[in-house]
Amino acid sequence: MNFIFRGNELLVQETGLELPDAAVCAALSLQPERLQQVWLDNPHIRTTHVPLTTEPPAGYAFLKLRALFSELGERTAVAGRAFQIAEWARTHRYCGVCATPMEPVGHELCMRCPACGMSAYPRISPAMMVLVRKGDSILLARHATYATARHTALAGFVEAGESIEDAIHREVYEEVGLRVTDLRYFGSQSWPFPHSLMIAFTAEYVEGEIRVQEDEIAEAHWYGPGDTLPDIPMRESIAGRLVRANLPAGTSS
User: Fold this and answer.
1) Pairing with 68, which of 7, 56, 179, 252 sits 20 to 30 Å away (CA)?
2) In angstroms, what CA-CA distances link 40 with 35, 36, 185, 231?
3) DSSP per residue, 25-81
4) Does domain 125-245 have CATH number 3.40.50.970?
């Protein structure tokens, strides 16, 4: 099973979404040793990045990985891991301290510098997500950085020195000007864009009026029983599950 990425796109058959076999890899001049194992105990699942100028072989296409999440079925989690491992291997070819070419450590997923000993492991960036509730209503926001973004829960990366809880309180106040309490864990999901771990919560509104941080949030509104909901995230995402688990009475998606 070979996961070949071009940027944030995955190479799949145009019909059936099958992954490329050894012959396709050979056509792309990808030798087995150039591909990184996704799991060290399974040499049959490999991954790599190819240059952005790479053209797909006949019958194949490079498709956005995010768009494929609802189509890959049981391969979704593996594809997400493969993307993160490929990105790690691509961005750690040289030591960040002394620029010496890095070497893989055989017994674990680690790149180590033979000159200075610096080690680099696959990066994971924790990010909080929180759905704020106010009585029978929920807060949904559309992020400013995506022109076609759906309305979803608030989210943001955890900063150095913060706990998840600290990040929630800071992000909610920064993005929409509200104070919250009663944080309750909902679930988590690996989100390989490029290497996030989404950790989702609900929270109860305490005080404040919505005041959006314009460089982050395009709009934010309360949605209550009977209101018409805007487009919300796909069911395969933790955001989609979080919102659907807390829909006000009389609404649906």
Assistant:
1) 252
2) 12, 9, 32, 40
3) HHHTT--GGGSEEEETTEEEEEEEE--TTPPPPTTEEEEEHHHHTTTSGGGHHHHHH
4) no
Answer yes or no: pTM beyond 0.90: no
Cβ neighbours, 10 Å, residue 187: 13
Phi, psi of 241 (to 5 degrees): -70, -40
142: helix, strand or coil: strand
Please name the residue that has the structure tokens 């049981």: 74
What is the pLDDT tens value at each position of the chain, 253 positions in all? 899 999 999 999 998 889 999 899 999 999 877 799 999 999 889 999 999 999 999 999 999 998 888 788 778 889 999 999 999 999 999 999 999 999 999 889 999 999 999 999 999 999 999 999 999 999 999 998 875 679 999 999 999 999 999 999 999 999 999 999 999 999 999 999 889 999 999 999 999 999 999 999 999 999 999 899 999 998 889 999 999 999 998 776 6
CB 45 within 8 A of CB 82: yes
- The token duo for 177 is 């000007």
